[in-house]
């Protein structure tokens, strides 16, 4: 199992082991046991050495039991090297680390061998908090009470221990050899994981309990790994900008490129970072849910049963689609919706205003209690035996999301006086980023009209950034530098947005010059254009 | 209650409080709660701020509950300022610290107001480990087993909690306002207090488990004060040279004086430091027990029932003595033994070789099963109804101790190429130091023949040094400097000692030129010299 890592990374893992054969005590070297070990470690470059008071006695006992031939495990902290373990002298015991992406809907765990720098295992699990609150806002409200915060935290810890236990067991590795954990998530998830009160995240003026978190130990959080393993939770930049995106910046390498790049992460919110090695600007806004398949009546997350790709015959208005998991469809996920709206628009089913063309007399277009709708799949074809339709209301909701997305991109670029054409790399994070077809997203005016090879799907940038941290401790410093360098623009209070937003509500936009590559279909006229599925982003 | 502190101390207590009125969060200052507090603390000079992961959530809750008007308590650590407490805004809540001297026979506790820099209370208690081992060696042997180490540690913790609880309660102060603890003791006592294995302290090559101890929190040791109060245990220099003596160096101020000074602490061992602000040399040796009243048949610690001062009529050989507690005598303590031997020598009862003159026909001199002896108190005068005698064997044992003491002083001065006459200050630590009469100690050749005003009894220098640390955090650095600057000479393995030692076994010495002020009595001849009690050292 591999994970492609940038070649600029330093090979300096967060946690190191060192095997020591100490000079034996004697009348001419009567240094105390602990001081002897400390001296050797400091001579080996681990300076200063920190030790937990509760560990001291055990470490000294190991040193004696092993007759001063020991292997030590140390982890870097902001204050020095913390001694995690002192045990028998050995060169090949595994030294493991865990990277964790705490997503609102999914938790992803990466088990990494810090010696061979190999990804040993990756596992994902649905976020166990979903039953406590489908979306993050519900969970934040739920977390107002201390006991509920404990419930939310415990659910994550339990899921952690179950998933990690499974990965470890499958490989017959001892959990006590997991010596480091790097965790990233959005601000709310980070709060939940650490048991912090997230209540003020969701009400003006949107204040997190903490943006920077102290280094924890596994035992503080009841994680079933080495109790002294340090646990690093990526800091937030602001209430809408979490450690997951900081990890994403690392993974995309925006912070070190001469080229101007942009990174977009569509999650609970759309989060955007724009910049290069000299400056970084970030913002986030509530564009997300509909783009990810939420909110819309038959919208769903990208999981088995979701339609993720759609094509429509321009002449017959008959759709063809791809279903995740290859079963019958239950709903439609974000990339499916983008395809659907883009194809409905090209086929003339949707007007520039996003209205469904009910005049054309297609059997695919019906009028429901909720107004005009397009039948994506008939009841015979669906898993639940109900017609899978998308209504004009759904489209309206979706267009607001895509308009918000475009507006965010527009405002942030203008904020720094650049144009879309200045962007050399357009990174789209998340599984979503790997799944959407940029041409479709451009056609509906969600992404700017740039050459297709500008766009890069990065997959789980958050998880990747966390893995990188395990393998390169210099990134602790980078993260702080990035945090300090980022100018965060709070869009929620930016009136400018509203004006931009109105034009972006149209397909693709009220100003077609912004999308020269998009052919605006003739009104009330079916088209015979239709193409094969385009490949997803690489 | 006062404790005289040196005027060179900086008024920078180890633990500080600061009252903060933070700017309220708003859309234009949406820093996270914790980061807001951290920022304010750092602006106030507390940088960097450390926080325990387990405290973070509670501190943030306090901040919110108090509407961003709080008082914070911070303690300095080697890595920065640890945040101990965040509570209601107030200016006059007490900020208390504890200094503890862990003596082999006695524990002394000092309760200090860190704001007013006043000593509020001092209390002492017998070391509760005495039933587990009268002397330190017995306790070290007892501590070979882990469970016994726990017993030894628990006994100290229990005594701590009882004594501190009493002091706190008497003054109606809340234990949770005790925010700092400075502890010093000899290496074995420091090991016992921290639950470390002392086994190797007492066998060649005499290796402590640790010389430097990590900063503990009160909760690590189950101390019933503020759980996050930092607990500093003074480091050792070597296996015979503990934190108590480092504290003593601070208290005597040797490390900052231009003058050459010497500090002698007679405890389980005789510990000696010689030097000035440019250099320090230290050694320790097994001179102690007999000087303190141990080992000798009727020897005892300086406690009620002990004869602590003796005069003998040169003509009649009749003694007069002072008993601690003013009851009947049970035994004789260190200063009493020094007086006794010195007076027996002057009266001609003892020869230069330390033999008892049985020829003179005094009823005070008898021959017991253990050989010749001097009756200090007849059975009618003693508490236990037995004659209180000192035998020639006792004197022999005692002379070995005093010879060891002198030899140590002799060797250490010669080691650095100075003479006794170069010593401007001769500090004698401990209650012992306050009790002995330097003229008597010179007469028996235990202390060098210097003008009496060279000698200063310092009382409990260890406790005083610990109090000083509470009130001046710059001393943390000084202690490390002193540790590094001290050259420690291991006398136990120094053959040179043996040669010096032989001459010092005599009264006062084989070379009388070393003690010009001491008049050598005529052999077999009673003298009519006798004087009043001399005052003890100031």
Write the layout of secondary structure elements.
The structure is a homodimer of 538-residue chains.
Chain A: E1 15-21, H1 33-43, E2 49-50, H2 53-65, E3 69-77, E4 80-88, E5 96-102, E6 106-113, E7 118-126, H3 136-142, H4 146-170, E8 178-185, H5 187-194, E9 216-217, E10 230-233, H6 243-252, E11 261-266, E12 270-275, E13 280-285, H7 288-291, E14 306-312, E15 319-323, E16 331-332, H8 334-346, E17 365-368, E18 371-377, E19 388-391, H9 392-415, E20 425-429, H10 430-435, H11 438-443, E21 455-459, H12 461-471, H13 474-485, E22 486-490, H14 496-504
Parallel strand pairs in A: 2-4, 5-8, 8-10, 11-20, 13-22, 14-16, 20-21
Antiparallel strand pairs in A: 1-3, 3-4, 5-6, 6-7, 9-10, 11-12, 12-13, 14-15, 17-18, 18-19
Helix pairs in contact in A: 6-12, 9-14
Structure description:
The structure is a homodimer of 538-residue chains. By secondary structure, chain A is α/β, with parallel strands linked by helices. Chain A contains 14 helices and 22 strands. The C terminus of chain A is likely disordered. At the A-B interface, helix 1, helix 2 and strand 9 of A face helix 1, helix 2 and strand 9 of B.
